[in-house]
Write a structure and sequence with these properties.
This protein is an alpha/beta fold and 117 residues long. It has helices spanning 10-22, 33-42, 59-69, 84-93, 105-116, and strands spanning 2-6, 26-30, 47-51, 75-79, 97-100.
Length: 117
C-alpha cells in the first residue's frame, strides 16, 4: 500500500517514512505541494499525509487540488498548530482526519489504520 507524505521538514518526512515502512507501507516523501501533485499524477496512492504549513503552496491548497482530481483519495492533515479553525477548514474541504505534531509512531499508525482500515 502506497502512502504519499508531504511536509517541508525533512525530519518529519524521515520519521514518517521509517515508521510506516516498518509497518509494511511503501512511502513516498515529498517536500512541497507542487511535488505532491506531480507525484500523484505519476503514481497511485492509498493515502496522502499533508502538512498544513508549507512555503509557497500550503496544505489547504493541496487538499483542495487533491479533492478536485482524486475525489476519493483519503487524506490525513498534520500540523504543529492544533488550531480548531484549521482542523475545521481541512475537514470541510475534504480531510477530516487530523494528527498534531509532534506525534508518536503509535499515534501515526493508529490514524493511518483509521483512514485505510
Amino acid at each position: 500500500m502506497k502512502i504519499l507524505v508531504v511536509d517541508d521538514e525533512q525530519i518529519v518526512l524521515n520519521s514518517c517514512k521509517r515508521v510506516l515502512e516498518a509497518d509494511g507501507f511503501e512511502v513516498f516523501p515529498v517536500t512541497s505541494a507542487q511535488k505532491a501533485l506531480t507525484t500523484l499524477e505519476q503514481e497511485g496512492f492509498s493515502l496522502v499525509l499533508i502538512d498544513v504549513k508549507m512555503p509557497e503552496r500550503d496544505g489547504m491548497y493541496l487538499i483542495e487540488e487533491v479533492k478536485k482530481k482524486w475525489p476519493d483519495m483519503p487524506m490525513i492533515v498534520m500540523s504543529g498548530y492544533d488550531i480548531p479553525e484549521t482542523i475545521e477548514e481541512a475537514a470541510k474541504i475534504g480531510a477530516p482526519i487530523f494528527i498534531a505534531k509532534p506525534f508518536t509512531p503509535d499515534e501515526l499508525l493508529a490514524k493511518v489504520r483509521q483512514v485505510i482500515g
